Amino acid sequence: MNEQLIVDYKNFLNNGKTERECVEQIIKMAEKKGYKDISKYKKLKPGDKVYIQKMNKSIALFEIGFEPIEKGMNILCAHIDSPRLDAKQKPFYEKDCITYMNTHYYGGIKKYQWLTIPLAIHGVVVKKDGTSVKVVIGENQDEPVFCISDILPHLAQEQMKDKASDFIKGEDLDVIMGSVSPVNTENLSKEEKKEMKEKSKKTVLALLKEMYGIEEKDFESAELEIVPAGKSRDMGIDRSMILGYGQDDRSCAYPSVAAILETHAGKRTTCCLCVDKEEIGSVGATGMASNLFENMTAEIIALSDAQYSDLTLRRCLANSYMLSSDVNAAYDPINAGLYDKDNSSLLGGGVTFQKYTGSRGKSGASDANPEFIAKVRAAMYDSNVTYQMAELGKVDQGGGGTIAYHAAKYGMNVLDGGVAVLSMHAPWEITSKEDISQMFECCKAFLGLV
Predict the structure, then answer these.
(1) How does pLDDT run across 343-377, given as a tens digit for each residue?
(2) Where are the beta strands (DSSP E) in 236-318?
């Protein structure tokens, strides 16, 4: 097991709870290894290392190979967004002396799992003048945390009759921000009553202005993400596992980044792409369903070849190999009936390859070619990488998708591969340290495919 990789990975999780924070870390890591922003180059030659970021939420690292780029690239791709709660654009309201932050959940969550756990706020608030203010509250021991309340068991008779999906409505996932003691206003003057109105909300806004210099209207142009507070931890008496937030899909993203930074491109140009919005369908300008990667590759070609052409771009993408790195559901012995055990990924069993994902008849899958799978298997064998082949649960039980089919539309060979995760999409997810180490070795081997 790569002990230093595990330490660095946990630090990445702790300091990268949003896409923006992940991109910021990746840029720092890359620049230490000689990568430069594409704006620093007028011409690219073999061996050059370059990165392109989009809106501070998606990023690609490229090392230029010796072959013409139209012969294709070796690409590692993972997503860096994770399920969470997002603050609405008018987030604060007071109700009976308690001030709440109004939220909208992001991605597939079990809503009840987010009740009564310590939460932190991460994000940015952008003022009218364009000034961007970074906000992080709830991670340091001396900082306050936040919480969503739940009904006490003594009053929960009706709630306990509901389906789990109805325990709490999405509209009620509102975070407690502050409170004031109730005051009898009977004998107060009009001015005093006016001053008491929304006193808790006023206090919250005053503190935010004192801490960050932001006004209530500034939240109209804010991106605040509510995530579990606290650091990732070793799990189990044997310390064989990691308990942490956001391991879907940062358990694949970090080893991918670390791998490209520890390898050198040979004939083929190598790339590590970390994208946003996978948890909500890869939509938007920073998601894989957009022209994001196509545009990034076009920029590389424009600086690499004397004559840029659309045909060169299309040939490059069609001839490329991609490891679509996303997590798989680890086999759960307590809930064994949900799985086909022989076709499930085991915690600690190494990298998980999935020929296809999707659900109910492979809907939403790219379905990798066996010739390409064989090429990848051979590379894993040559590099002594432990791997397993798996699906995500029983047929018709559920399923899931990845970004693979968005890349496959270019005609490139794509295979899903990643880390097995227990409690996937929960606020705290479980991975095996051995799987993280094997994922790193897998990514290095994949970058060397010819």
Answers:
(1) 999 999 999 999 988 777 787 778 899 999 999 99
(2) 241-244, 269-275
